[in-house]
Amino acid sequence: MMTRALVLTSSILGENGQSKGLAEHFLKRAANRDDLSVTTRDLVANELPHLKADELGAWQVPADERDAEQRALAARSDELLAEFRDHDVIVLAVPLYNLGIPSQLKAWFDRILRSGETFRYTENGPKGLVEGKRAVILAARGGQYAGTELDSQTPHLKTMLGLMGITEVDTVFAEGLAMGESHRESTLKEARQAIDSLVERL
């Protein structure tokens, strides 16, 4: 049975980004598995605009009642949702920018987190509509934040994934990358080893 992984990168540093490097290592290891297919999406090279009211409004108009402009606006999210649904594993390669996620990644989430599509509101709060998916977070940071109050990024990502119903989330941290060459190489080695183990389990 084929497992399908969608790898999303969001580093503004391109090939020089450490999170992009973690994603490339994931892709290299995934290529060794015949039962694992991978799709990649670079959210910087293929940048999405910030979500605006006209696009949000287009989703709320029934598909058969949308005008040409609304159809074009809704298609942006619909295409991303179709790609999202077509994969079993969502891999997020994420740098830490000012203690948060890149705005490019937020723009992707803004089009995936849609009421009636990936979650719905109930009298007991929102309920995820996504079943059978898992996620992997490949987190690259200049400092060391995991497990501290300054790591607002990890809870944010897990909360957004959980809103849709994705609660099986593996996280690989490569931290302290700006704290000297020796530390950087050591933490990257550990992260690559964790990715190797993770890919074998997918």
Describe what you observe in this structure.
The protein has 202 residues and is of the alpha/beta class. The protein has a single domain, classed as Rossmann fold. 40% of the residues lie in helices and 21% in strands. The strands form 2 sheets. The protein has a 5-stranded parallel sheet, sandwiched between helices. The protein has a two-stranded antiparallel sheet with strand order 4-5. Helix 1 runs parallel beside helix 6 and helix 2 packs across helix 3. The termini are close together. It is an enzyme of class 1 (oxidoreductase). It catalyses: 2 a quinone + NADH + H(+) = 2 a 1,4-benzosemiquinone + NAD(+); N,N-dimethyl-1,4-phenylenediamine + anthranilate + 2 NAD(+) = 2-(4-dimethylaminophenyl)diazenylbenzoate + 2 NADH + 2 H(+). Its EC number is 1.6.5.-, 1.7.1.17.
In what order do the strands lie side by side in the largest sheet?
A: 2-1-3-6-7
Structural class: alpha/beta
- How many β strands by DSSP? 7
Q: List the uncertain runs.
A: none
**Major sheet:** 5 strands, parallel
Q: How many domains make up the 3D coordinates? A: 1
Rg, rounded, reads: 18 Å
Order of helices and strands: EHEHHEHEEEHEH
Mean pLDDT: 96
| CATH superfamily membership | Flavodoxin domain
> What form results from the Cα inertia axes?
globular
What CATH calls the topology is Rossmann fold
CATH architecture label name: 3-Layer(aba) Sandwich
Q: Tally the helices: what do you get?
A: 6
Can you give the helix content as a percent range?
40-55%
Domain Flavodoxin-like fold: 4-197
Catalytic activity: 2 a quinone + NADH + H(+) = 2 a 1,4-benzosemiquinone + NAD(+); N,N-dimethyl-1,4-phenylenediamine + anthranilate + 2 NAD(+) = 2-(4-dimethylaminophenyl)diazenylbenzoate + 2 NADH + 2 H(+)
Family: Belongs to the azoreductase type 1 family.
Enzyme class: oxidoreductase
